[in-house]
Amino acid sequence: MAGLTTSPAEPAAYPSPAGLAAPSPAAPTHPASAHPASTSTPASATLALPRPTGPHAVGRDTLFLTDRGRPDPWVPSAGARQLLVSLHYPARPGSGGAPAPYLTTEEARLMLAQRGLEGVVPPAAVAATRAHARTDARPVRGRFPLVVLSPGFGTPRATLTGLAEDLASRGYVVASLDHPYESTGTQLPDGRLLTCAACERVDAQPDMAARNRVLAAVSTGRAADVSFLLDRLTGPRPSWRYAGTIDPLRVGMAGHSIGGNAAASTMAADRRVDAGINMDGTFFAPVPARGLGGRPFLMLGTDAGHRPGGEDGSWDTGWARLDGWKRWLTVRDSGHFTFTDTPVIGEQLGLEDPDVPLSGERSAAITRAYAAAFFDRHLRGRTAPPRLLDGPSPLHPEVVFHQPRPRP
């Protein structure tokens, strides 16, 4: 029922990066979609993500990487492309220090300002959202599949923390990226704050077709980011101290919004990625006509915007081109940000969206269950009951399976 925001699923146009609530009247370009239950939230409010459901404790590291072979595509004067990466991993119980932070206060402030919630929600409260991973935790012995997560356009990587923690607790190493200049705010280790130059580039375009071309470049650019990250995590001289816990022969990728498009773009460009999930993202960069080399792909979206024959025709085209194992699932009563942390946090803040009845608890449970079932099947060969990907399940009655017929 409640959520931080639930803007419509991306049409073949500029996807609003709103993630908490719709902008205030000061920025009237997007309709209001979330309604504060009160005019302000106490600074002392304690926000928390749902607990991970797997058997492992979770650790978290942060990597700051520089790709010296590639200039930044949005701000060439910034020099080489840089990436900020959160790594969640299965950890030994009782090891590690303090819980890993969710966002910096300045990152939270910029995100709230973009969404029209400045003066309504204290940035410090969102920044202090309680996650469950611990810093400096010792990893569990063994080698685990790697899953890369890419966030929505204009949205920080932190908004996929709940999914990252849950997958790590189930026995995955999870790398979540902030793509520089594609988020409301990314604070680098030296204190610099990078804002969304790519958003400005999209807004500056003269028409929808030009905007879509820039957004396609966002998706393919993210594919280059992920390929570089895989080099640094699985190559001969890895950058991460616990890189030995990664099995480089079992790699998956999931993304929200344009991050979901980037999962397909990455698979098209890099054979190392074995399986992918698009969570409610328009395919601005189309699935190649040749397909994805027979590799599995899951399309998981809103029922209102991404059912077959719906407003986003890129899903019909993408489905027809997928040439391996595939599923097309939609979720009733969901919104564009259902597949992120924002519905959970929004409910705790008293923000409600009457157009999206699905609760934060159900949003998190569905996203976690189907992402884990997909990667368990395709990276681990596990199809233990309940076989969620084989058909409708009484555990998740909101999830609809589609087998669309080709258009004439």
Overview of the molecule:
- The chain is an alpha/beta fold and 408 residues long.
- It has a single domain (35-402), classed as Alpha/Beta hydrolase fold, catalytic domain (Rossmann fold).
- Helices cover 27% and strands 20% of the residues.
- It has ten helices and 14 strands.
- It has helices spanning 105-114, 123-127, 161-169, 197-203, 208-234, 258-269, 303-306, 313-321, 342-349, 360-380; strands at 35-36, 57-71, 80-91, 134-135, 144-150, 173-178, 186-187, 193-194, 246-256, 275-279, 297-302, 326-331, 351-352, 399-402.
- The strands form three sheets. Strands 4-2-3-6-5-9-10-11-12-14 form a ten-stranded mixed beta sheet, with helices on both faces. A two-stranded antiparallel ribbon has the order 1-13.
- The radius of gyration is 19 Å and the shape is globular.
- Keywords: Hydrolase, Lipid degradation, Lipid metabolism.
- It holds the Pfam family PAF-AH_p_II.
Task: Provide the fold topology.
Blueprint: E1 35-36, E2 57-71, E3 80-91, H1 105-114, H2 123-127, E4 134-135, E5 144-150, H3 161-169, E6 173-178, E7 186-187, E8 193-194, H4 197-203, H5 208-234, E9 246-256, H6 258-269, E10 275-279, E11 297-302, H7 303-306, H8 313-321, E12 326-331, H9 342-349, E13 351-352, H10 360-380, E14 399-402
Parallel strand pairs: 2-4, 5-6, 5-9, 9-10, 10-11, 11-12
Antiparallel strand pairs: 1-13, 2-3, 3-6, 7-8, 12-14
Helix pairs in contact: 3-10, 4-5, 5-6, 9-10
